[in-house]
């Protein structure tokens, strides 16, 4: 950045006001300064110099949030901070996701990649500052006042404020975790702190109110995206089994982890004692001859330690490894599930139960219509729909399985929608090579949603209600006997590419096939198709070291 530009930005930021340690005093030109900063961000260059400068000076933490908290009663200033006047408002713009700023394409250039990582670090510092419940109490009061007005009399300005607030919540929750944070299970991360602040301030209750209201249907997709970001680190099965006391599985897992850490410490101490105890080097123990293996010359090959097997002899210890090209590197998994603090899990469990009881079916009905109308599948609506389908159906199955809570997403039409999404995502992986990680992630979401549908059908088969079992039988007869649905997973196996799909996708595919094969009532007509899919499964399972019976007929009904 040029010196004159940095000097102008510094002078502009200084004209906002000052903080004496207790109170923030506004400058008389504060409103004009905020408008100027919005214009600066609008005209930012490709390197995002202004955005990075504002992040380095910590403008959001030192000035904007203090203005937001202490001068929230000034409606004119509130509208400048949160409502759209020109293009973007200041806080919404500063907290915009880094991937969205770069058009969902991570820069490959070294300099631009460093700028991208710098913006992410600024967003992570913003998230820490926004984990204050005072901020969200003010937002909650503002939303409460707006929703107290009738929908027909609310006006366009209030509707815009609602959209901006929902965008702010989404931006804060979308910030990726810091790799240096390294919090263990049952510990509160920054994301957990933000969730607790949203819960304590009442924002979570407002989100449930918006989702349950048929008059606020235009915000349902935004609510669904926010919920997916809230629960992104949670496991539905663990969340469903969360209680006031730790379960036996959690205790055993913690004890095993503690023992492994203890063993690691003992091993490190033993290695240090062995290193400094004056023990002779292993090279003084003599040399050995490998039988039936020639060296470079005519002599027998020598080694400096005894080997039990010939396969243990390695020749690559001193060789330099060939660096893999970027397009051959495996795709890393974007989600890491962890166990949050008990208080966080308890209120999230309560939130999921309330969402299932009165919100899930109408919200998913509206989301399904949005996904069907989205022909190109280029928006995040499809991925949010698939994530919500998989998560809440798994939560319902593991908590207290009742079909009426998820009846909207148990039908043959849902199988068709998932199949369409999977085919579309795979086509985009082949054509849109610059965004392969995004399409691979969405393909994995569709695959997990398909697998959860199979698990739900299995739970319906075990239901004591005869009508539920008959409904499951009808769905299976429609799905497993139609070639389009029957060969869905087989096509995924045949089109699998280890360089374009993550490790989690690699594991989910054969597990889904195994679950599907258990359902199929195979006769002589469809035996060829099932045998082909099973052989493809076995071939893939060999690479994944998954135990599969050698005889395919053991898992199939003749």
UniProtKB/TrEMBL annotation:
GO terms for molecular function: DNA binding. The keyword Cell cycle applies. GO terms for cellular component: replication fork protection complex. It is found in: Nucleus. Residues 23-290 form the Timeless N-terminal domain. Keywords: Cell cycle, Nucleus. InterPro entries: Timeless, Timeless_N. Its main location: nucleus. It comes from the Eukaryota. One of its GO terms (biological process) is DNA repair. The keyword Cell cycle applies. This is Timeless N-terminal domain-containing protein.
